[in-house]
Fold each of these.
Amino acid sequence: MEKNNNKFYSLPELPYKYGALVPFISEKQLRIHHQKHHAGYVAGINASFEKLKKAREKNIDLDMKSVLKNQSFHLGGYLLHSLFWNNLTPTNDEKGKPNGNILLAINNEFGSFERFQKEFTQTALSVEGSGWAALAYCKCTNRPILMQIEKHNVNVYPSFKILLVLDVWEHAYYIDYKNDREKYIEAFWKVVNWKKVNERFEGAMR
Ligand code: MN3
């Protein structure tokens, strides 16, 4: 067999230490989330690639609907977690408030930061089962837009750049907050990396 040079997915390192987000997210919670759950999606997407590769080598038919549904789930999980870690910071100097162009865009779209925060919180709270709240950017209209993702891959707007995501799968907060999603969301606002969100926004506008 020829050497396969195709790259696989790998678990990215966190941009801070596991204990860096205490008291808002505990070291134990963050470690399990990253090493078990995020790593699980990396393994899942790579397993899907392996399955396709083997089937192609032997020219075996696959249930493509099932394979790609699974692939979409794991790839979505992998990508969203990679974004999520970069959304968080132990040094939220702005006391939870954005600055710069992202603040202007939020004010323009939502009327105020407080209104945005309320809508985003309600988006996160009302995710049915497991999923994500996200702030994305629409290049067609130059406007920020809310997105409520079910699981990791349902209700996603294709090609819209995600600026800010919040994981509201129970696996993200059960150790720290049991089933109290609202308390977890309150804590999330204390560790948002608005500098990063603004960078992503400015990158998307270019
Ligand atoms: Mn998660």
Amino acid sequence: MRKPSPLIDPFDRTISYLRVSVTDRCDFRCVYCMSEKMQFLPKKDLLTLEELDKVCSVFVEMGIKKIRITGGEPLVRRNILTFFEGISRHLISGALSELTLTTNGSQLVKFAKPLSDLGIKRVNISLDTLNPEKFKEITRWGRLDQVLEGVQAAKSAGLAVKINTVALKKTNENELHQFVKWCGEEGFDLTFIEVMPMGDFGVEDRLDQYWSLKDLRGELEKRWTLEDLSISTGGPARYSSVKETGQKIGFITPLSHNFCESCNRVRLTCTGQLFMCLGQEEDADLRSALRINSKNDILLRQRIRSAVARKPKGHDFDYTRQKVTGQMSRHMSHTGG
Ligand code: SAM
Ligand code: SF4
């Protein structure tokens, strides 16, 4: 079969990375991500695991090299291991160079070893505080000890761990150095993320929560020697290494400095909507393409190609002048962070 031409967007960016949200549900209710009483999608709207496998496989045939599974909490989706098992065939064949996931860590005691056995090499674990009470405040429903056990299970299973921490003003500011120290001792990379205006929350909340990574970096440099690294994952993170610990620190700065020009990704929701940008409404309906003719994927391929041809230049998130602009009504758990 002739190899399809690569997915290239109107700004000459090659799309090689797919994020897949496998569920909008979660066992936590983080204050910056969900409201306490979330309305979840009806089950019939979700792509089945077979449909998710089909879309991912078509993307791989079209040139996607990296897939990150996310959510909601991906590990609470029923039979999720069956899905990972299926997709891992593309790792074995070499068509896919990386399959990873982003998780809140709550289910890793159960899943770390089976995931590692399937060829998954790394995992991003979201953790915003090392203080049990604060953890409860942020996640509303989570327990820090359970997550820390999950983190250790991932380490023991041989998975490379990256800790994702949302920078939250007045919440985890005073834990910054402790995070760097802990990650350094454990051998974990660490990425800080600026809080983005996703979901229907009060404007004041966002501005109250927002801690610019420019400020955070300035604070870090009071105690650690940061050396900029030239590596890029084609994503929005920029990396430095910490001389004292040797670990890598990433900075995801959609607000204080956006790096959309190097964006290489698209995002599939659990209902089969394809978003070409986290911060824009533009989408494509892949579910109907899948369901109209499940045997033949010509329509699915056409929709993917035409979606990539409409990929916007970048997001419009902005908090300057004490105002939130570029707000997205959909939650991060729907699009998949
Ligand atoms: N449940 C998993 C987790 O928490 O890692 C995966 C999904 S979660 C939506 C993915 C990432 O998005 C997490 O690291 C989370 O902290 C981040 N996130 C959620 N809402 C966000 C927001 N409004 N701004 C910035 N990051 C956000
Ligand atoms: Fe759940 Fe992750 Fe959102 Fe927290 S950030 S509520 S763990 S989906």
